[in-house]
Automatic annotation (TrEMBL):
Zn(2+) binds at residues 184, 241, 257. One of its GO terms (molecular function) is metal ion binding. InterPro entries: Dehydroquinate_synthase, DHQ_synth_AroB, DHQ_synth_fam, DHQS/DOIS_N, DHQS_C. SUPFAM superfamilies: Dehydroquinate synthase-like (SSF56796). Catalyzes the conversion of 3-deoxy-D-arabino-heptulosonate 7-phosphate (DAHP) to dehydroquinate (DHQ). The keyword Nucleotide-binding applies. This is 3-dehydroquinate synthase.
Length: 352
């Protein structure tokens, strides 16, 4: 079993091992969590893994309830969030009870936000079931729901008590969701390690799940330790996300988050090369890696639509938008771009 300790306002472990779902209950008991657990999940994940998760919890002596909602990003909204809170009230959950987020990033972000705010905060465990949520979203405590105006517009930082990562759950993951997870993995390589990108080029992620998850979580651990509340270097984890979130929104969420991030990374890297901030060989290397994992690198959405959607970016003030800009593979920087130059940057990135 690999254990990665996260040092943040709440300290916790990310534990990674195939088969670990069966130990959910004993691990929750070891943490001294309360007697009742609410499993929050989506319909598709719960049909596959709900019974196993609940058995693990009841075998360890917990009373278990569950709240399910339809799968998909469209459900990561205030309405579902309110339903979770009302469910917890109806079942008389108390501050000594805890939530279990069983699912991908949509479930994790939404259940985390519910845990942060129900009675001003109850503990929660992340049980990520997608590649994307294992390598990125279950760690670091960013919780959120989307508003009509954009992604993750309401949320807070609230760390889980445990992240239980069982890579054997990925056996049922649809191919497209696997690829979307690979986009965030390529993001980590672009940010921090050319060696890691070479590994991804040479050996498919699906042949080395545990190692890839451990590497990405280790990288995120270092970022969160230095800047939990996103005041500085954590912004780098938003590589590809200004345009990525915008294209996701423009598509009405028919594009997956990872697909948006892939497009966003390609566009910002193209722009950075055009502006002379990035070595030219970085772009074909990134594009080849994205294409190797079947990810998109372009979008037809017009520049004006992307610009409007990007106004919801949390790295934006009235005066500047901070773009995360690759300088070369393994090195990126935060580049404040004045508001009147943002359109020019996106044109340089290939948007029309
Ligand atoms: N909080 C963070 O730091 C952070 C980081 C990255 C992304 N995110 C957010 O995460 C979300 C995307 O997460 P995601 O890609 O996991 O999407 P998701 O949660 O929508 O899951 C993708 C789909 O796969 C299904 N699924 C999940 N696990 C499965 C399994 N093991 N087998 C079969 N099907 C399974 C789900 O039902 C869903 O339909 C976005 O909302 C994004 O904004 C948050
Ligand atoms: O953990 C972080 O910090 C990230 O930015 C990780 C991103 O992959 C993730 O998509 C995050 O939810 C984006 O956050 P936001 O602040 O741009 O909403
Ligand atoms: Zn992301």
């Amino acid at each position: 079993m690999t254990t990665i300790h996260i040092a943040a306002s709440r300290e916790y472990d990310v534990v990674i091992e195939p088969g670990l779902l069966t130990r959910l209950g004993t691990m929750a008991a070891e943490l001294g969590l309360g007697r009742r657990a609410a499993v929050i999940s989506d319909d598709a994940v719960f049909a596959l893994y709900g019974a196993a998760a609940e058995k693990a919890l009841t075998d360890a002596g917990f009373q278990v309830d569950h709240f399910l909602f339809p799968h998909g990003e469209q459900q990561k909204n205030l309405s579902t969030y309110g339903q979770v809170l009302n469910f917890l009230c109806d079942r008389r959950f108390t501050r000594s009870d805890f939530l279990v987020a069983l699912g991908g990033g949509v479930v994790g972000d939404l259940a985390g936000f519910a845990a942060a705010t129900y009675q001003r905060g109850v503990p929660y465990i992340q049980v990520p079931t997608t590649l994307l949520s294992m390598v990125d979203s279950s760690v670091g405590g960013k919780t959120a729901v989307d508003l009509e105006h954009g992604k993750n517009q309401a949320g807070c930082f609230y760390q889980p008590s445990l992240v239980l990562c069982d890579p054997s759950l990925l056996n049922t993951l649809p191919e497209r969701e696997y690829r979307a997870g690979c986009a965030e993995i390529i993001k980590y390589a672009m940010l921090y390690s050319e060696d890691f990108l070479r590994e991804l080029e040479e050996t498919p992620v699906l042949e080395q799940f545990e190692r890839v998850i451990s590497v990405c979580v280790g990288m995120k651990r270092d970022v969160v330790r230095g800047d939990e509340f996103d005041k500085g270097q954590r912004a780098l984890l938003n590589l590809g996300h200004t345009v990525g979130h915008a294209v996701e929104s423009c598509s009405g969420f028919t594009l997956l988050h990872g697909e948006g991030v892939a497009i966003g990374m390609a566009i910002i890297t193209r722009a950075a090369v055009e502006k002379g901030l990035c070595t030219p060989e970085t772009l074909p290397r990134l594009l080849a890696a994205l294409e190797r994992y079947g990810l998109p690198t372009e979008t037809d959405y017009p520049l004006t639509d992307i610009l409007a959607a990007a106004e919801a970016d949390k790295k934006r003030t009235d005066d500047v938008t901070k773009f995360i800009v690759p300088e070369r593979v393994g090195h990126c920087r935060v580049e404040p771009v004045p508001a009147d130059e943002v359109a020019g940057w996106l044109k340089a990135g290939g948007l029309r």
